[in-house]
Amino acid sequence: MCSGSFAKCLGITLIPLAILCVLCNILLFFPGGLVADDSSHITDEVFFFGGIIGSGILMIFPALVFLGLKNNDCCGCCGNESCGKRFAMFTSIIFAGVGLVGAGYSVIVSSVAINHGPKCVTNNGNWSYPFSEGNYLSNNTMWTECTKPTDIVPWHLTLFSLLLVMSLVEMALCAVQVVNGLIGTICGDCCGCCGGE
């Protein structure tokens, strides 16, 4: 498979992942699926926008670049017909790096949020973080410490876990494009429009 075509496949995969990450982050603004009475009742890590900025917006740029690699202009430069394709593949490495940083940010925010646990009303009637060290992950009987919003713990865990997994997949895809981009930069695109390179 040509490096440009392979990059296009990666771009096609990254677009829905980025959209899903944005949706997960938006859903986290509705604890337990309900509208929060006050923004202070929403878990702090939601406001770090790991899914919206990190694995969402910052992932759209690399995805669009990867999608366009197959159709880029390869008229060449300085008498070298493959120069256009090679430069485009080199540029894709830079954008893949941007994607790695964005997805990495989302992974960190999601990991911290999962370890920290959700903000909820505890048995004493106050809004707080009853799970400080991630100890609730292996002991679901502790989940009863959160009385409101209803089902906030599974809501929090599910959405941040989805963000974590999808961000890891995005990181892997961007890392693959770094390797693909290096191959395309060194060897050119095997299906280039200039001379069949």
From TrEMBL:
**Where is it found, in Gene Ontology cellular component terms?**
membrane
Which InterPro entries has this protein been placed in?
A: L6_membrane
Q: Report the principal subcellular site.
A: membrane
How does the record classify its membrane topology? Answer: Multi-pass membrane protein
Q: Does the keyword Transmembrane helix apply?
A: yes
Cellular location of this protein?
Membrane
| Gene Ontology biological-process entries | negative regulation of pancreatic A cell differentiation; negative regulation of type B pancreatic cell development; pancreatic epsilon cell differentiation
Q: Which UniProt keywords apply?
A: Membrane, Transmembrane, Transmembrane helix
Q: Where are the transmembrane segments?
A: 12-34, 46-67, 87-108, 152-176
Organism's domain of life? Eukaryota
Tell me which family the UniProt entry assigns to this protein: Belongs to the L6 tetraspanin family.
- How is this protein named in the record? Transmembrane 4 L six family member 4
* Native source organism of the sequence: Scleropages formosus
Upper lineage ranks? Eukaryota, Metazoa, Chordata, Craniata, Vertebrata
Task: Identify the coding gene.
Answer: TM4SF4
